[in-house]
């Protein structure tokens, strides 16, 4: 990111329909109302570490900078604390927009499922779909298998300690009627195909 | 009806406003075939001089006895076309308006559908106008006295102007002194005039003017009557001090043992239970705040300190609220604004950190007669080295008030100047947009920029503490960088909002309110001072946030409105009122309690209800409630309305 020189923003690199695409996601309806006040960035616990602040992400969405937005780290740094959404003076659900951007980045191949953040989300999703609730051990194993298992070897002693203290369990406790949860998830997936 | 009905129909293009969607010639052609229609024309602008002349000529030459104009909302131009009819010798109520702009062209996408709808509206109007009857307006005298409610700068200006014209005016103020919010400000933008120095002479003029009767510590309780002839009941709250005897020496306030946070000093200092709100108060005589006074609460009469020290015997614990009535022709409501309480948003730290204060508190802090005698200090007495001013707190925010409070940008610039002048501190203004819209305001902005105030374009999102120092978190949106700015003092420039009792006041005076809760003017551009109730005018911040120049202008403007009524000496009373057919009235009395204006009474002798036509506003509530069909509102009779509905629905 360069802020010291004014580079030309090439028009041919912009996607004019990008804002409309994001606006069509649940929670994205109001992005055109953004007044760029920066309340989101000032409230965000992660903005100091982001490559683009949340306010800037929204400005880039509206400008059609699809490539830059969908390949940014910022959208994956969002911790979904919802401070921005709670405080936004224009009622924009920025946390939901961040989810939409993550989903788009995956769908359109800007990130691969081998990368940690997307893989984490995917693994989380799969565990919930399978058991109807969280199971930490499955989550971390899923994540390891999707990315590089060797990255997680160092975590083993930590996991062992958590197990000793009863913080994680070996076997998952699923909810009753898992089939219903599965059916529910599949229905949502069908609806989401656009 | 024996005479032959001869209707003229005029379809207006309204430039492109109607003609863009509605095929006006086709509508006119359609209308010309409707029953009783003698002539149907379409024209560019019916309201223009040649448009009006067209109707006038047709009435005379074609002997029209009914006129329908299909154009805009009747709000603006119904009176115009009524006058046209009357100038051609036709009663103005034999006229009907079809609204094919607001109700049709502006809200319909498809031109074909718009044209069909316009035809239906015209058909309904033509059918309705057949049943119209000539009605005659009456005149009522206007009482030349005027009431002004609210003693802030807008109310003061209004009262002074009315008095200067020689009319009697009562100025009612609910607190013990006039002066309002302006009295609490230190300096005023953009000239940096001392607020008190320009306000107090006006306050004194009010007190000295023979035509002004000043009622402080008083509230309007009830308004009866109608334009030109109001009867107002005012509650003079028990002040417990005899204003005729009191010399304003101040001994009672010195000796009073009870301390209460001062409203005037925005809670930064204490006042006594017997108090004058501020040194330049008018009248400069105290009132006892009975809610806190020991005589009236804890000691149940034992504490008599003020009574004992008063050398002129002005203290009167037995004084009671007094109801007085005032008859006047017009009312000016200038009840001002309230301030947003930022403690509802925990992110700003107000109420949590001592050195987070509001703009009005800073005004008092920086004022030479304020709680610190004008020294700008933190709670612990340190002089702040770094100060943040946060704009738009509670304004432009859907979580609180979506509207812009208008004055905060300029007030924040002024506060930045005062802060630097008094302390030499680094000042950081966190803003979203800077709106320097008024005369001399942009120049003031330039001056503050040159003075070296730091401007950060981004809303102050959060005030927190780091290593014992306040930190304002926000994004410098022009740099695209997240910032944490350490400061010693944070000033929150809070939103202007409707007064807490705006609902009640609106009800008393029959004023409507806009979505933001402020009082609603009749027309946002052309009738900014009028309200839905004839003879009741509004001025200043009760209508919406305003700076001092605008409030003063509105005060003077409202005085002109009231005076033009008073000077005319008479007022037209609409003939569109309820009427009761005594042969049909069953005497059930259902309508009596429903009438919001007390215009219906019951004739015990004849056992039927009767309408006082001077009080009736023609709202129609009674007509809708009448089970025997005896009640009708003229010009909106059942027959007229049902015919119109039938025709608009006919295929």
Write a short abstract of this structure.
The complex is a heterodimer of chains A (194) and B (651). Chain A is mostly helical and 194 residues long.
Mean pLDDT of chain B: 96
Give the CATH H-level superfamily of the largest domain in chain B: FAD/NAD(P)-binding domain
> Which CATH-level-2 architecture of the largest domain in chain B?
3-Layer(bba) Sandwich
Report strand % of chain A. under 5%
The sequence of SSEs of chain A as H and E is HHHHHHHHHHH
Structural class of chain A: mainly alpha
CATH class value of the largest domain in chain B: Alpha Beta
Major interchain interface with per-chain residue totals: A-B, 23 and 23 residues
> Which structural class best describes the helix and strand composition of chain B?
alpha/beta
Report the total helices of chain B: 16
DSSP E strands of chain B, number: 34
The appropriate CATH architecture of the largest domain in chain A is Orthogonal Bundle
Radius of gyration of chain B: 30 Å
């Amino acid at each position: 990111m360069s802020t010291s020189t004014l580079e030309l923003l090439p028009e041919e690199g912009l996607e004019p329909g990008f804002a409309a695409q994001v606006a069509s996601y649940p929670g994205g309806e109001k992005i055109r109302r953004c007044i760029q006040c920066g309340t989101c960035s000032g409230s965000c616990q992660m903005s100091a570490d982001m490559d683009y602040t949340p306010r800037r992400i929204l400005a880039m969405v509206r400008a059609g900078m699809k490539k830059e937005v969908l390949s940014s780290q910022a959208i994956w740094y969002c911790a979904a604390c919802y401070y921005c959404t709670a405080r936004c003076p224009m009622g924009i659900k920025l946390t939901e927009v961040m989810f939409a951007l993550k989903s788009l980045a995956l769908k359109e191949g800007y990130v691969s499922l081998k990368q940690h953040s997307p893989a984490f989300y995917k693994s989380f999703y799969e565990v919930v779909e399978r058991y109807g609730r969280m199971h930490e051990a499955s989550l971390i194993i899923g994540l390891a298998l999707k990315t590089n298992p060797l990255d997680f070897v160092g975590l083993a002693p930590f996991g062992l300690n958590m197990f000793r203290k009863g913080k994680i369990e070996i076997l998952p406790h699923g909810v009753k009627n898992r089939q219903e949860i599965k059916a529910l998830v599949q229905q949502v997936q069908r609806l989401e195909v656009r | 009806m024996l005479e032959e009905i001869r209707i003229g129909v005029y379809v207006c293009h309204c430039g492109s406003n109607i003609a863009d969607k509605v095929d006006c010639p086709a509508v006119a052609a359609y209308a010309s075939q409707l029953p009783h229609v003698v002539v149907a024309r379409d024209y560019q602008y019916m309201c223009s001089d040649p448009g009006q002349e067209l109707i006038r000529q047709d009435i005379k030459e074609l002997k029209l006895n009914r006129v329908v104009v299909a154009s805009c909302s009747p709000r603006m131009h119904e009176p115009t076309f009524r006058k046209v009819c009357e100038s051609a010798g036709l009663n103005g109520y034999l006229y009907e308006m079809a609204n094919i702009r607001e109700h049709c062209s502006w809200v319909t996408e498809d031109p074909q559908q718009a044209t069909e709808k316009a035809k239906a509206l015209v058909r309904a109007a033509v059918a309705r106008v057949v049943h119209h009857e000539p009605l005659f307006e009456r005149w009522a005298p206007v009482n030349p006295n005027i009431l002004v409610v609210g003693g802030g700068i807008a109310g003061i200006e209004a009262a002074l102007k009315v008095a200067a014209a020689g009319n009697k005016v009562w100025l009612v103020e609910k607190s013990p002194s006039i002066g309002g919010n302006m009295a609490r400000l230190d300096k005023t933008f953009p000239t940096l005039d001392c607020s008190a120095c320009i306000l107090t002479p006006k306050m004194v003029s009010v007190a000295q003017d023979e035509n002004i009767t000043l009622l402080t510590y008083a509230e309007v309780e009830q308004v009866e009557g109608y334009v030109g002839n109001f009867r107002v009941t005012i509650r003079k709250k028990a002040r417990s001090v005899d204003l005729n005897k009191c010399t304003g020496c101040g001994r009672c306030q010195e000796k009073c043992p009870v301390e209460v946070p001062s409203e005037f000093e925005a809670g930064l200092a204490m006042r006594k239970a017997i108090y004058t709100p501020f040194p330049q108060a008018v009248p400069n005589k105290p009132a006892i705040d009975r809610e806190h006074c020991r005589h009236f609460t804890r000691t149940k009469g034992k504490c008599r300190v003020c009574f004992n020290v008063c050398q002129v015997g002005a203290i009167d614990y037995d004084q009671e609220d007094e109801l007085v009535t005032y008859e006047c022709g017009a009312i000016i409501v200038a009840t001002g604004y309230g301030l947003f309480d930022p403690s509802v948003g925990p992110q700003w730290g107000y109420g949590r950190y001592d050195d987070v204060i509001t703009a009005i508190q800073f005004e008092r802090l920086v004022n030479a007669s304020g709680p610190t005698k004008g020294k700008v200090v933190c709670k612990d007495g340190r002089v702040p080295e770094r100060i943040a001013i946060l704009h738009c707190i509670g304004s432009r925010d859907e979580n609180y008030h979506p509207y812009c409070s208008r004055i905060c940008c300029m007030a924040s610039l002024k506060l930045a100047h005062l802060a630097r002048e008094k302390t030499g501190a680094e000042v950081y203004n966190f803003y979203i947009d800077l709106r320097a819209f008024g005369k001399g305001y942009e120049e003031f902005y330039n001056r503050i920029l040159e003075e070296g105030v730091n401007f950060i374009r981004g809303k102050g999102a959060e005030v927190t503490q780091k290593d014992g120092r306040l930190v304002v978190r926000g994004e410098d949106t022009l740099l695209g960088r997240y910032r944490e700015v350490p400061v010693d003092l944070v000033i929150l420039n809070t939103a202007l909002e409707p007064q807490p009792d705006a609902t009640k006041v609106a009800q008393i005076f029959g004023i409507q309110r806009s979505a933001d809760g402020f009082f609603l003017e009749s027309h946002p551009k052309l009738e900014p001072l009028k309200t839905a109730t004839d003879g009741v005018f509004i001025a200043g911040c009760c209508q919406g946030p305003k700076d001092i120049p605008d409030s003063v202008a509105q005060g003077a403007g409202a005085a002109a409105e009231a005076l033009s009524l008073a000077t005319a000496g008479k007022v037209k009373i609409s003939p569109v009122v309820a009427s009761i057919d005594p042969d049909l009235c069953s005497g059930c009395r259902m309508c009596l309690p429903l009438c919001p204006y007390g215009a219906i009474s019951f004739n015990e002798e004849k056992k039927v209800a009767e309408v006082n036509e001077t009080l009736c506003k023609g709202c129609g509530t009674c007509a809708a409630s009448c089970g025997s069909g005896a009640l009708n509102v003229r010009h909106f009779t059942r027959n007229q309305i049902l015919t119109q509905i039938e025709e608009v629905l006919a295929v």
